[in-house]
Amino acid sequence: MPLLTIVPPMPDAERRFQPFVDFVHAAGWETEFVHLKMAGGHPPFGSTEIFPQVDAQTEGKVVMGFSLGALYAHLGALRARHLILGSIAPFFLEDDDEPERWMISYRAGNANTSADILVGALEDEQMHRRAEAVRDFYRQQTYTVVPDADHELWHPNYLQAIKTALDRRRAP
C-alpha cells in the first residue's frame, strides 16, 4: 500500500487524527506522522526550528497537512514527492493582518514539488487569499474549493476531496 505522511499541527496530535487515519486506511493508504519537537504548547512563531524537522522526515514522500500542518509541510517538506495542503494557515510574512506569524514568505517553499491545494468554500477571505497565492506559487498543482466546507478536516466533502487527491497519486 502507498504511504501518506501526515504533518500534524502540534506534537502528539496523533490521537486527535485517528478518525482521519482510519479514513486514509480505508482509502487504501498506510499512514505515518512527522514527529515534531517544539518548546511550549503553541506554534513557534519567530523560529524556523520546525521546518528542518519536517524536511528530514518527508523526503521523497506524499505529504499531507491541514491548517498549521499544511503551513509546516509547505515550508518544511522541500524534498517531498507530492504535497496535499488543506486549508493552509495564513501566518506568513505577507499576512500582515496577523500579529503572530512567521517572518517567512510563502514563496520559501519548493515551487517544483507537485501539490494539491484545498480550501473550504465557507472559509473566510483571508484563507482563500492565502490558498490562492499558494496555488499560484506551485508550478504543478491542483486546486480544489471544497463545497459546503468550513475549516473542518472531518467534513464529508473535505474527506472526499482528500480521497480524490490520494486516488490521483495512486494512478500510474
Chain-wise SSE layout:
Elements: E1 3-7, H1 18-26, E2 30-33, H2 50-58, E3 62-66, H3 68-76, E4 82-86, E5 114-120, H4 125-137, E6 141-146, H5 156-170
Parallel strand pairs: 1-2, 1-3, 3-4, 4-5, 5-6
Helix pairs in contact: 2-3
Notes on the protein architecture:
This is Alpha/beta hydrolase. This protein is α/β, with parallel strands linked by helices and 172 residues long. It has one domain: 3-Layer(aba) Sandwich (Rossmann fold). The chain is 32% helix and 19% strand. The chain is built from five helices and six strands. Strands 2-1-3-4-5-6 form a six-stranded parallel β-sheet, sandwiched between helices. It is globular and about 40 Å long. The mean pLDDT is 93.
